[in-house]
Amino acid sequence: MSAEPAPAAAAKRARFPSTRLWLAGIAVVLALGSPLWGPLLLRRSSFFHVHRVEILGARYVAPRDILARLQVDTLASVWDPTGPLAVRVASYPEIESAVVHRKLPGTLVIEIVERVPIALVAAAGGFRVYDERGIALPIDPARVPVDVPVLMERDTTVLRLLGAMRAGQPKLYERVSAVRRAGRDELILQLKTEPVRVMQDVTLDRLADIEPVEADLSRKQLRVAEIDLRYRDQVIARLQ
């Protein structure tokens, strides 16, 4: 059985970091002070090999998919150029942008911004997830919960409208459960409380008229069957 260290020896070890860490710290300071050859020198040290990858901002993308794009193993160094790593990660269709940071001595931090799901569109065998550009995203709604409006077909006009609503009228967007066409230029936004009939070029300012009308009907204890915003300067509430 090994003996307990003497108090003086224990105190001495507590005061001084390990020789390896101390030398590595000096090497980092010297190398960073020489930006031309410093990172090249540090890349040769196994102390700075990548041992951990942290992923920030991932909600819909599986970490394994990001790691597959990253193409980094434990022989890589955190001092390798990070630009190519960010480009490889951002090439994933669901990712809008990516930034790679170093966390010494051996961690890479991947910060991503995902493309936002805007709607579920009916497809053979289920639904596909689309963004506001009208591009399908590689998200499986059977695996990852996606709470967005439902469309019966891919409609870029509707997808752009929903994208604008999500950015400018997020509370109203959250209330939309489905959107369908009621004619060539008309849409029906199915809210969780009632349908709203609009023209396809409806503006966010016009959609803002819904809330005060609903509030007035609620005060009067009237139940609405449909709100119609198709006519300029008028809001028609059809009652049940």
List the helices and strands and how they pair.
Layout: H1 7-15, H2 19-32, H3 38-43, E1 52-56, H4 63-70, H5 83-90, E2 95-103, E3 107-114, E4 119-123, E5 126-130, E6 136-137, E7 150-151, H6 156-168, H7 170-175, E8 176-181, E9 186-191, E10 195-199, H8 204-207, H9 210-219, E11 224-228, E12 236-239
Parallel strand pairs: 1-3, 4-7, 10-11
Antiparallel strand pairs: 2-3, 4-5, 5-6, 8-9, 9-10, 11-12
Helix pairs in contact: 4-5
Q: How would you portray this structure in words?
A:
The chain is α/β, with parallel strands linked by helices and 240 residues long. The protein is built from 9 helices and 12 strands. The chain has helices spanning 7-15, 19-32, 38-43, 63-70, 83-90, 156-168, 170-175, 204-207, 210-219; strands at 52-56, 95-103, 107-114, 119-123, 126-130, 136-137, 150-151, 176-181, 186-191, 195-199, 224-228, 236-239. The termini are far apart.
What structural keywords apply?
alpha/beta, Ubiquitin-like (UB roll), Rossmann fold, 2 domains, 5-stranded mixed beta sheet, 4-stranded mixed beta sheet, 9 helices, disordered N terminus
**Element string (H = helix, E = strand):** HHHEHHEEEEEEHHEEEHHEE
CATH architecture of the largest domain: 3-Layer(aba) Sandwich
Biggest beta sheet attributes: 5 strands, mixed
User: What is the strand arrangement across the widest sheet?
Assistant: 8-9-10-11-12
Low-confidence stretches: 1-17
Radius of gyration: 28 Å
Secondary-structure class:
alpha/beta
What characteristic shape results from the CA principal axes?
A: elongated
Distance between the termini: 86 Å
Mean pLDDT: 86
Q: Tell how many strands the DSSP assignment holds.
A: 12
Q: Counting H and I runs of at least 4 residues, what is the number of helices?
A: 9
Query: Helical residue percent?
Result: 25-40%
Strand content: 25-35%
Q: Which fold name is given in CATH as the topology of the largest domain?
A: Rossmann fold
The total domain count is 2
Looking at the chains present, what oligomeric state does this protein adopt? single chain
